[in-house]
């Protein structure tokens, strides 16, 4: 121990003072020993702003630092293997997370709600990142997913509104539901050629995303995958996707071009509603089109393939449709199918159609002529309501004017022909 009094001769008071100094030095050494060990290696300690995780820690337990709103930095130890569920959830002041080499697993919601987190460094040792791990990290601007990760779990980066770029490794096979939902700043993401499935809402509300090109490895695209991507202007689908799911591109108001696979069999309900489609062609392989599939879209011309038997409810409601043709074999035109198509000037309905639903052509204000199918057996109320420019309606080789007297004559002909429905309210 250091001797603080250097004189050879000492008086009694000096001896007393020496004793006090020795005692003080001993206390300092004991206190230091508790923290780092006298003469040993100095260890870092946590402060309100810095979380220091002790050396030798292999697993950070669930909820370990959840709700800590003061810490701005975390210092991880060497040898760390996993970060538990909600370990740093809602640590809103946290700015940087540099995950050390050796960490293999990041638990569910581990960094959820870390709204101040701007930078995350993930080593290639990471093999799994559980659902919602970085959800709501609203300051995070970019992320590079480690090469050994094969699944982007549900909600992993959901709500990371400042995220501009996401780099996904080649080995990724699944992009989970809501994985990037609400990443409003995301303008670039490359979908690797290894991806087989894109989950529900995966990229929904990514309002800066301008293009979506899905590699042919993708076999499954779930509903609302690109819902509300308002800046999206072009989409190219994998040739191995058999169904365009419900609301897949609904609300993509800038979407003008969609390249569909040649073997597509179905278009889901509202799949392309609210888009700005131009020059759209449905593959001949399509046999089913869901309700409101093209409602409120910019589509101007369409030919329905012969495999489609039912024209579902509201399929083109409120769209910019000008011309439409239904193939022989179609059976039903649903309620509101073409309602509000104010630009519609021509529609071809085959004689195979047996029923026309209520309000089917309501508000088609520019439609001048309509030929009803010879096989018609049922017509719904208000099916021709507010067709202000309609001059003639043809049925079974005879053309009828649309003045009140002619309307009555046509209604009587419907009755005599055995047609049922809202005959008195067709107009």
Structural overview:
- With 427 residues, the chain is mainly beta.
- Among the domains are: 1-42; 300-427, Leucine-rich repeat, LRR (right-handed beta-alpha superhelix) (Alpha-Beta Horseshoe), CATH 3.80.10.
- It has two helices and 32 strands.
- It has helices at residues 12-35, 404-416, and strands at 50-52, 59-60, 73-75, 82-83, 96-98, 105-106, 119-121, 128-129, 142-144, 151-152, 165-167, 174-175, 188-189, 197-198, 211-213, 220-221, 234-236, 243-244, 257-259, 266-267, 288-289, 301-304, 310-311, 323-326, 332-333, 346-348, 355-356, 369-372, 378-379, 392-395, 398-401, 420-421.
- A five-stranded parallel sheet has the order 23-25-27-29-32, with no helix packed on it.
- A hairpin with a 2-residue loop joins strand 30 (392-395) and strand 31 (398-401).
- The termini are far apart.
Strand fraction: 15-25%
Oligomeric state as shown: single chain
Task: Fill in the CATH topology of the domain at 300-427.
Answer: Leucine-rich repeat, LRR (right-handed beta-alpha superhelix)
Binned, the helix content reads under 10%
Salient structural properties:
single chain; 427 residues; mainly beta; Leucine-rich repeat, LRR (right-handed beta-alpha superhelix); five-stranded parallel β-sheet; four-stranded parallel β-sheet; 32 strands; disordered N terminus
Topology:
Layout: H1 12-35, E1 50-52, E2 59-60, E3 73-75, E4 82-83, E5 96-98, E6 105-106, E7 119-121, E8 128-129, E9 142-144, E10 151-152, E11 165-167, E12 174-175, E13 188-189, E14 197-198, E15 211-213, E16 220-221, E17 234-236, E18 243-244, E19 257-259, E20 266-267, E21 288-289, E22 301-304, E23 310-311, E24 323-326, E25 332-333, E26 346-348, E27 355-356, E28 369-372, E29 378-379, E30 392-395, E31 398-401, H2 404-416, E32 420-421
Parallel strand pairs: 1-3, 2-4, 4-6, 5-7, 6-8, 9-11, 10-12, 11-13, 12-14, 14-16, 15-17, 17-19, 18-20, 20-21, 22-24, 23-25, 24-26, 25-27, 27-29, 28-30, 29-32
Antiparallel strand pairs: 30-31
